[in-house]
Amino acid sequence: MNHADFPLHNRDSAPDAAAAFDRAEAIFGMVPNLTRKMATSPALAQAYLDLTGLFEGCSLSAQQRGVVLLTVSRFHGCDYCMAAHSMTGRMTGLPDAEVDALREDRPLRDPRLEALRRFVHAMLEGRGWVDAADLAAFRHAGFGEQQVLDVILGIGLKTLSNYTNHIAGTPVDTAFEHERWAAPGVAARRT
Prior knowledge:
- The protein is mainly α.
- It has 9 helices and no strands.
- The termini are close together.
């Protein structure tokens, strides 16, 4: 199976995609290539859009959500999502220095955002199993149980998109081409 097996759908070619395309356009102001690739599975496209809305309404601020999304995408080496969330992170007020640090997997200047980044990374590395010290550090930064669970929501959301982009070879949209990113030490995987 190669990337060409996953078409970049339009409204005419996607099975039952009209609703997903309409929702994506309402959420993002466009139909991203990710939605076009996911449209082969209408259930996946709808689930991703549902989770996007739920994550946007969670207890984490817009900047904190950006940290989660970029940390997960960096961990998974997702070129598409790193470009998309670098742009949206900057648009939500996440400082350029923090976005750049997340792109380079460096510590953040803001101590609370850094605690969040570390916790997300610990969750990913441990596949949900975290040390008591990791959880205590997250709580010490002012986060509680709701934020722990909202981090899991963000990880789930990004895992859906990161894995889709990996297997389907989703091309970066023109809208965030200026934020193009490539996983360090990984040769181009798209064919």
